[in-house]
Amino acid sequence: MTTTDETQAARPAGRPRSARAEKAIIEATLDLISESSGLGELSIEAIAARAGVGKTTIYRRWSNKEDLLVDALAALKAPLPALAGRSLREDLVACAEVFLQEARNARSRCVMNIAMNETERHPRLVQRIHQATIAPRRAVLTALLQRGIATGELRADLDVPVSIASLIGTVVWYVRGFGPDQEDLPEGTAERVIDHLLVGMSPR
Amino acid sequence: MTTTDETQAARPAGRPRSARAEKAIIEATLDLISESSGLGELSIEAIAARAGVGKTTIYRRWSNKEDLLVDALAALKAPLPALAGRSLREDLVACAEVFLQEARNARSRCVMNIAMNETERHPRLVQRIHQATIAPRRAVLTALLQRGIATGELRADLDVPVSIASLIGTVVWYVRGFGPDQEDLPEGTAERVIDHLLVGMSPR
DNA sequence: CTGTTTCGAAACTTTTGTGTATCGAAACGG
DNA sequence: CCGTTTCGATACACAAAAGTTTCGAAACAG
User: Fold this and answer.
1) CATH of the domain at B159
2) Most buried residue among A68, A82, B7, B20 by CB atoms closer than 10 A?
3) Which residues of B touch A192 (CB under 8 A)?
């Protein structure tokens, strides 16, 4: 038993790795992915320069580019909307608001692009994005719609898969018509889309 | 007046440029764009190799990469659906079928990706895509929906912009759940989506 | 046949990124 | 204070691609 047996195995001695540098590397990576399109244009040198870090510090932690990408995208948390549960419409609007903001945010959008385009080049990465980002959203919406069917707020014969595609796809495609990061998008856009789609999803 | 005054100005003498080579270059460019993601990964050398052409032949016609891309994407015709005009539903299904096929076709999909992601890097190119591909589709759908409103097949207070986004966005997002080029997508998908959306767009 | 231009191929220079190694300085444990 | 490890910076060899030039062959006009 050594004297330093606080909680875990003893620290391996020597200068500890800088958590600040690690953070800076992840941030720089996400920045550069957002600015570029496609993972092929991403260079380790650019990441090191942007992060104010030596290349050594990167290669010491990640042996190849994909490992770094996996960690970087994992750090990009996916904030699912808090579902108040008061009414179906209210929860759907909350979801739409989240999707809308993500569609306008460069960092969130690049995750979608990677999932759509890099399936063959980086299957491991895409698979991880699916289970970390896409599957949870799909699950939330599925549960939400089935709850709505149960409470009678939605048609009993509702086509759930198509409804999910319409909820996400419509928001994404609608905001696409406006500038990516501009501020000229009106206020009640989420409500407007949901109210439009809800007409066809409600009973009678 | 020279003897060769057939229709236009006389040919400038010398070996004429091979139309076949030009075609091969355009085809190779489109192939490589489809396979890659992002325009930055595209290399002139790869295009020349794929086309079976010397790099000289490319640089002689296009001074830079973007000029080549503009011409290549212009060659990618956008087949708007033939609108039979018998019923609104029939025409909408025809549109949806076209969008669906395009969403699964690598060459068409890459146009969408470029339009969404390369706005800052290639504004000229994106602007051209907008006026050559996106605007016509938007116009067709707008006319179609307004005709439907006039004939009473659609609600008089229909939100046309949101409807357009829902028609395209839902199809694109729905087929996205299946494999990109797989064959496992069911037959009546276009009808299924249109019938779902039409519920909320019809009167009463 | 002669002059001109394009053809594909190859050599060339320059730029950019990869991955490794080396350097002195700094941060820790003991 | 000492050994160890990380720090950022820099240099290095290697590869890929950009863009230019040169080359012999081929296609066309006159």
Assistant:
1) 1.10.357.10
2) A68
3) 159, 162
In a domain, residue B82? The reply is no
pLDDT at B9: 52
Chain B residues in contact with A198 (beta carbon < 8 A):
200
Is A127 in the same domain as A155?
Answer: yes
Mean pLDDT computed over A37-52:
92
Question: In this complex, which of B41, B168, B200 lies closest to A38 when CB atoms are compared?
Answer: B41
- Residue among A37, A119, A162 whose CB faces B180 most closely: A119
Spell out which residues of chain A touch residue B123, defining contact as CB-CB under 8 Å: none
A142–B contact, CB cutoff 8 A: no
pLDDT higher than threshold 50 for residue B64: yes
Residue B204 Cα, gap to closest chain A Cα (Å): 9
Whether residue B118 sits in one domain with residue B196: yes
Q: Which of the pair, B118 or B146, is modelled with greater confidence?
A: B146
In a domain, B83, yes or no: no
B179/B55: higher pLDDT: B55
Residues B48 and B145 in one domain: no
Task: Verify that A132 and A190 share a domain, yes or no.
Answer: yes
| pLDDT tens, position by position, A11-38 | 778 899 999 999 999 999 999 999 888 8
Map chain A to HEC letters: CCCCCCCCCCCCCCCCCCHHHHHHHHHHHHHHHHHCCCCCCCCHHHHHHHHCCCHHHHHCCCCCHHHHHHHHHHHCCCCCCCCCCCCHHHHHHHHHHHHHHHHHCHHHHHHHHHHHHCCCCCHHHHHHHHHHHHHHHHHHHHHHHHHHHHHCCCCCCCCHHHHHHHHHHHHHHHHHCCCCCCCCCCCCHHHHHHHHHHHHHCCC
- pLDDT recorded at residue A79: 76
B57 within domain boundaries: yes
Q: Which domain holds residue B10?
A: 3-74
Considering the entire predicted model, what is its pTM? Answer: 0.88
pLDDT tens digits, one per residue of B124-144: 888 888 988 899 999 999 999
